[in-house]
Specification:
The protein has 14 helices and 16 strands. With 389 residues, it is of the alpha/beta class. It has two domains: 187 residues, Rossmann fold (3-Layer(aba) Sandwich), CATH 3.40.50; 180 residues, 3-Layer(aba) Sandwich (Rossmann fold), CATH 3.40.50. The strands form four sheets. The chain has a six-stranded parallel beta sheet with strand order 3-2-1-4-7-8, with helices on both faces. A six-stranded mixed beta sheet has the order 13-14-12-11-15-16, with helices on both faces. The protein has a two-stranded antiparallel sheet with strand order 5-6. Helix 9 packs across helix 11 and helix 11 runs antiparallel to helix 12. Keywords: NAD, Oxidoreductase. It is an enzyme of class 1 (oxidoreductase).
Amino acid sequence: MRIVVVGMGYVGMASAVLLAQRHEVVAVDINADRIAQISAGRSPIVDPDISDFLATKQLNLTATTDLVEALPGADFVIVATPTDYDPDTQFFNTSTVEAVLRTVAENAPGTTAVVKSTIPVGFTAGVREDFPGITILFSPEFLREGRALHDNLHPSRIVVADPGPEAEAFAGLLAEASLDDDTPVLFTGAAEAEAVKLFANTFLAMRVAYFNELDTYAATHGLDTRQIISGVGLDPRIGHFYNNPSFGYGGYCLPKDTKQLLANYQNVPQTLIQAIVDSNSTRKDFIAFDVIDRNPKVVGIYRLAMKAGSDNFRASSIQGIMKRIKAKGIPVVLFEPLLEEAEFYRSEVIKDLDEFKSRCDVILANRMSDELSDVADKVYTRDLFGGDS
């Protein structure tokens, strides 16, 4: 088959590499630098498995910035473009997805487009009316940043909407590429598949928020958070996973997906979804005030990324804490190798780690690192278990 994948972020890049093992895949992105890296066999995102596959596997993968050029002969067009949450409209900005679908409809009628971007409930039904000349499926992704290809090779489930020959064929592509023999495959309605994605991520956000609020309580009362979580997790219904306290849930997916689900609840009674969204702000307030109470002269931010092995710091919770601290007039400096600029939101970016350590009397680290072991007495972190889950 010939498959076009549009959008070379985590979802698109992992999908392209996964399917290029057995099929002809054309990767499309408007960013010429990303396309140049892919053409040179390098991954434009941080994902060890993707980098390894590009370097060592025989992949039928080409890359271009020209979607129209890539479309002839395509059996499937996978849409994996960004859909950031727009606080003004209280909905995802789906303009990039719509633009791709329009281009496909105009230049390759009869093609099947598979949306993998996260979208609001009801979006697929709407674009099917707008672009009746193409088949439009929705297949949510359940990938972790930094482990996107791994999660495609070992999928927790494959969900495709709606039932039909095209959906079955696409699900077959994903199942064929899986290294597991027993991956559950679920065919649903389009709105149901959209809801699966939003409710799944909101549940994960709720779990993060729960253990963070447990930690806030323990810290406020001088209790040992680790002991409490260890005891709670021994209940097999709860388990010892996704329980490491943090500065709040962040990254690209959870903040926007929880807000989108909340927006979808308009005119539907609820309190829990709102509480999950509010809890993340409350956690940032607690962390910021706890740091401020230490009367620091200079606060250092060690890495903006939310988790180890990721190069993404969009909507990372540490940025919200940074803003709260700066609002109190406390100088903040950053160490973030991913930043080339000298400043980030009017805070100095220090390139040298040793200089960074010496300049700060409190260093915020969402996740502890061996790089900070020599200044452990300066480090403020809620990381108890040394991992992201």
